[in-house]
Amino acid sequence: MHKAEPTAIRDRRIRFGLVGCGRIAQKHIEAIQQHSDRAELAAICDSDPQALKAAQDKADAPGYSSMQDLIEQAEVDAVCLCTPSGLRSDQAVAAAGAGLHVITEKPMATRWADAKRMVRACDEAERYLFVVKQNRRNATLQLLKRAVSSRSASAASTWSISKSSGRAPRLTMPAPASAAPGSSTAVR
């Protein structure tokens, strides 16, 4: 059975609700502000009044003390779940049930069953579920990916990755068996 895709929003900015105002939430606020021609932070939620006030001051968006209040009262298209990982599965299910798309920080859940429940809820509601994976373009991880993909790295058993401030990451792995004893290979 093929389900219909959610209708694209093209005639206005996408309205986001931010749930959880801790450290990572600041990155979401900044990203939404950077794309203010297409996106707006329409609501913020946190159970900690001080964290909520600080985020409101930065984002100039109405605040709610509970996600349920945000869902019921704010006009949002999607929620960004920036809460502790053990809370996200129930929050994603509630958001999807209210017809909202879900953007969640990683890990999306702490248990496999909860992750499947999140996916099922979004599928049944025909809403998108997106798990933030900002590190997929991380220079260190890209270096490791290239090394794993290369033939010379296939026999490596112990690797060392180091990064100095302002410098490219460096991956050190044992040299091939044909190299001099004690030598290593470095990749930047």
Features:
alpha/beta, 188 residues, single chain, disordered C terminus
Concise summary:
It contains six helices and nine strands.
- How many β-strand stretches? 9
Radius of gyration: 21 Å
Overall CATH class of the largest domain: Alpha Beta
Give the overall shape, derived from the CA principal axes: globular
Distance between the termini: 48 Å
CATH fold name of the largest domain: Rossmann fold
Q: What percent of residues adopt helix (DSSP H or I)?
A: 25-40%
- CATH architecture type of the largest domain: 3-Layer(aba) Sandwich
Strand content: 15-25%
The strand order across the widest sheet is 3-2-1-4-5-6
Give the CATH H-level superfamily of the largest domain: NAD(P)-binding Rossmann-like Domain
Mean pLDDT: 84
Instruction: Give the number of domains.
Output: 2
Low-confidence stretches: 183-188
Quickly give the structural class.
Answer: alpha/beta
> How would you sum up the major sheet?
6 strands, parallel
What is the helix/strand order? EHEHEHEHEHEHEEE
**Count of runs of 4 or more consecutive helical residues:** 6
Can you describe what's shown?
- The structure is a single chain.
- With 188 residues, the chain is α/β, with parallel strands linked by helices.
- Helices cover 34% and strands 20% of the residues.
- It is built from six helices and nine strands; from the N terminus they run βαβαβαβαβαβαβββ.
- The protein has helices at 23-34, 49-59, 67-73, 88-97, 112-124, 139-149, and strands at 14-19, 39-45, 63-64, 78-81, 101-104, 129-131, 160-162, 170-174, 184-187.
- The strands form two sheets. Strands 3-2-1-4-5-6 form a six-stranded parallel β-sheet, sandwiched between helices. Strands 7-8-9 form a three-stranded antiparallel β-sheet, covered by helices on one side.
- Strand 4 (78-81), helix 4 (88-97) and strand 5 (101-104) form a beta-alpha-beta unit.
- It is globular.
